[in-house]
Amino acid sequence: MYGLCGKAKAHPGGRDALVEHLLKAAAALQQLDGCYLYVVSRAADDPDGVWVYEVWHSQADHQGSLANEAVKELITAGRPLIASFGEYFEMTPMGGKGL
Amino acid sequence: MYGLCGKAKAHPGGRDALVEHLLKAAAALQQLDGCYLYVVSRAADDPDGVWVYEVWHSQADHQGSLANEAVKELITAGRPLIASFGEYFEMTPMGGKGL
Predict the structure, then answer these.
(1) Predicted TM-score of the model (pTM)
(2) Could B90 and A45 be called an inter-chain contact, meaning their C-beta atoms sit closer than 8 Å?
(3) How many angstroms separate the CA atoms of A58 and A55, rounded?
(4) Do A98 and B55 count as a contact with CB atoms less than 8 A apart?
(5) Is this prediction's ipTM beyond 0.85?
(6) Which residues of chain B make contact with A36, given a CB cutoff of 8 A?
(7) Chain CA centroid to CA A90, Å
(8) Contact at 8 Å (CB) between B62 and B25?
(9) Distance (Å, rounded) from C-alpha A50 to C-alpha A52?
(10) Distance (Å, rounded) from C-alpha A17 to C-alpha B26?
(11) Which residues on B lie below 8 Å from A43 (Cβ)?
(12) Which residue in the set B19, B26, B93 is minimally distant from A41, CB to CB?
């Protein structure tokens, strides 16, 4: 498995719009079997911060999703909602509850 | 919902044992309805690093789990496997795939 946890910062006051957009992305990923988890969260310590946590069958599945037409459109449409990117951690999920 | 993503560092060479222990914790959490996700991962950039990503119904459910006898025993038994704690991020999950 392949996992990543990354943070993005919305423009001031724009977090709700960014979260809403990322939840649309999550809905589009429902059809991709290689995506196991895609959780969108508000950061607790930053009023503009949004965390996305993803678990994929493999890094290749994640990479391949970026070529999916629906995903590409969502990335293009979402980019203006992001002021900057923050922490980004890659990991190898070994199991657990909910996987 | 309440989420957290935290990193622990095993003693050199001890990561597999720590991961195995945390997967036992994940198994114990299967019975707790308030715990939605508990994913144990190897950090990609640190041979001793382990990430745990958790999503709970509420912060109170997470807090309450620490009083659960099985969880308490697992925390006590696991503590010697951890050399140090690293990053720790709290968040409010808003939805997504797998929740």
Answers:
(1) 0.96
(2) yes
(3) 8
(4) yes
(5) yes
(6) 97-98
(7) 13
(8) no
(9) 7
(10) 33
(11) 89, 91
(12) B93
